[in-house]
Specification:
By secondary structure, the chain is an all-alpha fold. The protein has 15 helices and no strands. The protein has helices at about 1-35, 40-55, 55-65, 70-90, 100-130, 135-165, 165-185, 200-215, 215-245, 250-300, 305-335, 340-350, 355-365, 370-385, 390-395. Helix 2 packs antiparallel against helix 13, helix 6 (about 135-165) runs antiparallel to helix 11 (about 305-335) and helix 9 runs antiparallel to helix 11 (about 305-335).
Length: about 400
């Protein structure tokens, strides 16, 4: 079973996560290097995340109808093609057309990443259910893979952009996408029945919302993490501006910030396995919420690159443990027969704050950036407080759902 998971689940997810990480953190750097504008950097962040929300129902429906293997392979191949076409297009573009091309690249990469993510997450959910009581261990491995990719992706993107230009970064992005597509046939496919989930997408949304409302512990945790993601999204969009323009460091130093954060997250995720076994999901979740909230308030007031790097690392470590708690609780509480539709709703709620963060980044002046981070930290604090107080008052009950 472990060998099958490595070949069928973990390796394809690793290759795709590396490509997604490089696109997520590298494209804002590419925008800043091309335009020198913090507003356009925020707009690029919107362009990377908004298509994910707009195509979310379509991606879920495609995975249910055609299977995660085919969707994953086609999305990875299309992303490689987009990266290959972007290299000569940007090389021949002038100062007027280059920003538009980079925005288009951000939109295409975000859309295709959504399709591959839903496909890979569907396989991971099946592996968690098959693991039974060890579901949190499977989820910690999957999250560890994501964090390992986040460790390598930003650093590689920043270094490639600085030393090899945009062509080097995009070539690496395309190469990783090709690898993802090449190993997709080894991917384990969830045991779905023929013709399953071919109904209207609206029916799936209604089922997902009804199931989530019937699970208050999960619903409050999703809301709390959504507000936490607003702070995280703003930090992701603002870090190139803070590090390069306000702290006077290079683009490679931006990648170092997220690579160190990913390293801290890897350590936290590995530790969470033993911690959850000993103290349970709730105890570990409350501790992780505290570890996440405090650094976010402090980030808004630091003027040192080293302190900024450390605070981001601590923030991401706590956030990663919260993600393990969420994924484990989700796999335990959601009935298997409505898991796909409920997963779509929860991930939509969790991703919605990212384009909002991009809008904030595009609208606010750089001088108001630290105040905005403080406000987002306050919202995060309130959301996580509700998640671990009101969300635990009502005992989770098995969701009722429409057939």
């Amino acid at each position: 079973m472990t060998y099958g998971r490595v070949r069928g689940v973990y390796l394809p997810r690793l290759a795709d996560a590396l490509a997604s990480s490089m696109a997520t953190y590298g494209i804002p750097l590419l925008v800043l290097a091309t335009t020198k504008s913090s507003s356009l950097t925020g707009i690029a962040f919107i362009m990377a995340w908004a298509p994910r929300l707009c195509t979310f129902a379509l991606a879920g429906l495609a995975v249910d109808r055609f299977g995660p293997i085919r969707v994953f392979r086609l999305a990875a191949t299309a992303r490689a093609l987009v990266a290959a076409l972007a290299v000569p297009a940007l090389a021949t573009a002038d100062d007027r057309t280059a920003p538009g091309l980079v925005m288009l690249l951000a939109a295409c990469a975000g859309c295709l990443t959504q399709f591959s993510f839903i496909a890979a997450e569907s396989v991971g959910a099946v592996a968690s259910r098959d693991a039974g009581d060890a579901a949190h261990r499977v989820q910690s491995v999957l999250l560890g893979i994501d964090q390992a990719a986040a460790l390598a992706g930003p650093a590689a993107g920043g270094l490639l952009l600085q030393w090899a230009g945009f062509s080097g970064m995009l070539t690496a992005l395309g190469g990783l996408s090709v690898v993802s597509a090449a190993i997709t046939p080894r991917m384990h496919r969830p045991p779905a029945q023929p013709g399953e989930a071919t109904g209207p997408a609206a029916g799936g949304w209604r089922t997902g919302w009804a199931t989530l409302r019937a699970l208050p512990a999960l619903a409050w945790l999703v809301v709390g993490l959504a507000l936490s993601n607003l702070a995280l999204g703003l930090l992701e969009a603002a870090t190139p501006v803070i590090v390069v323009q306000q702290l006077g460091r290079s683009s490679a130093m931006v990648g170092l910030v997220w690579s160190c954060a990913a390293g801290a997250s890897l350590l936290a995720v590995a530790t969470s396995r033993v911690a959850i076994d000993r103290w349970g999901l709730r105890g570990v979740g409350r501790c992780a919420a505290l570890v996440t909230v405090v650094p976010c308030f402090l980030i808004a007031h630091t003027r040192s690159y080293l302190v900024y790097l450390v605070l981001i690392a601590v923030f991401m470590a706590g956030d990663s443990v919260l993600a393990v708690v969420l994924r484990t609780l989700r796999s335990r509480l959601i009935p298997a027969e409505v898991f796909g539709s409920t997963l779509s709703v929860t991930v939509l709620i969790l991703l919605a704050p990212y384009p909002v963060a991009g809008i904030l980044m595009a609208l606010i002046a750089p001088t108001a950036l630290h105040t905005t981070i403080t406000v987002c930290a306050a919202l995060q604090c309130v959301g996580l407080a509700f998640a671990f107080t009101r969300g635990t008052r009502s005992r989770p009950r098995r969701a009722r759902h429409r057939k």
